# Entry
Amino acid sequence: MLDNITEISILYDFYGVLLPPKQREIFRLYYEDNLSLGEIAEEYGLTRQGIHETVKRGEKKLREFEAKLRLIHKFEKEEEIIEKLKKDIEQIIYVHKEDSELTAKLEQIKERITKLNQ
Amino acid sequence: MLDNITEISILYDFYGVLLPPKQREIFRLYYEDNLSLGEIAEEYGLTRQGIHETVKRGEKKLREFEAKLRLIHKFEKEEEIIEKLKKDIEQIIYVHKEDSELTAKLEQIKERITKLNQ
# Structure
């Protein structure tokens, strides 16, 4: 189970770009720069409560994007498959370790698979 | 170069879910069911011009989503890498065709790589 801040950070990495600029900026100050609601409020000349609501609205939107697009879900599923593929290739490399030409090719394939989800 | 309808269909596949329900519905009738603007206008009790504007607004939004999230771009890049990986594995299989245990394992890896972008 991810804690709330980690969850929001991941959501922000995937969907932050879809938030309106001002909301995104406030979000960034709060979650990345760790400014307090009061500090952000002062910077924007808004109330602490206003900033709090903006952050909460942003969180809700990010969760809605994931519910609709499921990019994080797909990413995690792909990561799992990639990890499994890498292990299977490593096993083949181990079994055929005397065949340097084969293992070199498989190492290269493994590297390229690793980069697929980046 | 993709024609406009193909381009919009792909954009809709990736981002249609982010359009508001009514806009999405009109979009679907126009692009998937190939109803005319006039037919959709009649169904909704709106003007042909109103439907035309809704469709155009939808297209603009879909393009904005791609400009921000780049999912189609990433998908196509991944497809290219996957195709290349498959070919390289096929070549190894061909070279080692007498080793049925190895080729069976590589065939299975190839299958799983193919499914990564689906």
